[in-house]
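Standup notes, structure subgroup. Blocker cleared on the iron/sulfur cluster input:
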Amino acid sequence: MVMNILKEKTKNNLNNEAVIFDFQKYSIHDGPGIRTIVFIKGCPLSCIWCSNPESQDMKPQVVFFEKNCIDCGKCISICPRSAIKKVSELKIIDRELCDSCGKCADGCPANAMRNCGRGFK
Ligand code: SF4
Ligand code: SF4
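Run returned:
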């Protein structure tokens, strides 16, 4: 069952790449020894308690860290697809419009928009 979901999720990954979104050094919890953990996108499970929901989509994405945002509006003006809207104090990313180009993250002066996921062969 899990393997079928994983195959379904990865079948469009024509580049045969692992999309990695984080490395965690000196991991000493939840397992034996001192480890380096590699976080790969495309988890097939979608648990409701997931502490890394950005792992569930196979593709790179931008993620928004509200507490870092200084509300400069640069991401909104940079986005070539008009995918970012300001709703109250929040920046909402329309995932239907966003193509994960990463320009908003590259241009954010406060590291509030971040690229999540990079392909490795
Ligand atoms: S560019 Fe960064 S700091 Fe400026 S509004 Fe967008 S998310 Fe906030
Ligand atoms: S990743 Fe690109 S398309 Fe998506 S919100 Fe940022 S600038 Fe817009």
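Discussed briefly. The helical segments are 2-10, 74-78, 103-107.
Next: hand off to the docking folks.
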